């Protein structure tokens, strides 16, 4: 029987002996996110915009903190409809700074509004956010899934996330550093970093095999 001493490195087994990446161990809510969202390919512009905004809010915090506040964030930012958020003004910033349901960081709130406006520009140029972001998928979207010190430390970047970060910054985006962009790529399925042995890894691989790659309009 697998337990914390016998499960493979980087994985844990629940009561049913299902193996998952150890980072989602904290709560059932976290495990559900790991099983049903993280690593599955996404093409929805709303999902992509939400994720890039929430990854920005995560800077300096844990993803679990943000995940637990996600519904409050959605309510505060009009469901992450980029067209609605792009119209937010200083009165909205003041309102959001007082919203205890979200992370009340003025700089990150202002960044979200700015990034909504930049997202509109990307959509106009590429036809969709998905067409833009999926350009940065690595040549091998399925990584080996083996443990490295970088994986265990939680500090991860890649040449593609560095290139994505650099390009977004040139376009006027903020809170889009290479580590933040790598987290976006992991979550939205541009890379599959579920470890070998994780029950969700093959599901993510199968979903990517069925995924129709977004292209520039």
Automatic annotation (TrEMBL):
The keyword Hydrolase applies. Its EC number is 3.2.2.20. InterPro entries: Adenine_glyco (IPR005019), DNA-3mA_glycosylase (IPR052891), DNA_glycosylase (IPR011257). Keywords: Glycosidase, Hydrolase. It is an enzyme of class 3 (hydrolase). GO terms for molecular function: DNA-3-methyladenine glycosylase activity. It holds the Pfam family Adenine_glyco. PANTHER family: DNA-3-METHYLADENINE GLYCOSYLASE 1, DNA-3-METHYLADENINE GLYCOSYLASE I. This is DNA-3-methyladenine glycosylase I.
